[in-house]
Specification:
The chain is α+β, with helices and mostly antiparallel strands. The chain has one domain (about 5-45, about 50-95): RelE-like (YaeB-like fold, 2-Layer Sandwich), CATH 3.30.2310.20. It is about 25% helix and about 40% strand. The protein contains two helices and five strands, in the order βααββββ. The protein has a five-stranded mixed β-sheet. The radius of gyration is 14 Å and the shape is globular.
């Protein structure tokens, strides 16, 4: 089963603020998440996030940086849509 992805306004703004090199990678990971959301998640701790939310984390290594990205989402009431509420990242410089 493939899920639809819906980004909240905040998630859209989060995605737009990502470094260009990371935007495409996160977009690809969202497409990947559509096909197997249960296998790529873990429950988030609330607060600060609403109960029932999930987090999908992944790393991306490029140009001497290791980006640790996080996508926060929940299942919509229709159970066929994943609602992405937040997208964040940490930029860790890799030592030579």
């Amino acid at each position: 089963m493939s899920f639809e992805i819906a980004l909240t306004r905040k998630a859209e703004a989060d995605l737009a603020r990502l470094p260009a090199v990371l935007q495409e990678h996160v977009s690809n990971k969202l497409l990947e998440l559509r096909t197997l959301p249960s296998g790529k998640r873990r429950a988030v701790v609330s607060p600060p996030f609403p109960p029932g939310g999930m987090i999908y984390e992944f790393a991306y290594l490029v140009a001497g940086h290791r980006y640790q990205a996080m996508v926060f989402y929940r299942f919509a009431q229709d159970e066929s849509t994943l609602v992405v509420t937040d997208i964040g990242y940490t930029d860790l410089e890799v030592s030579p």
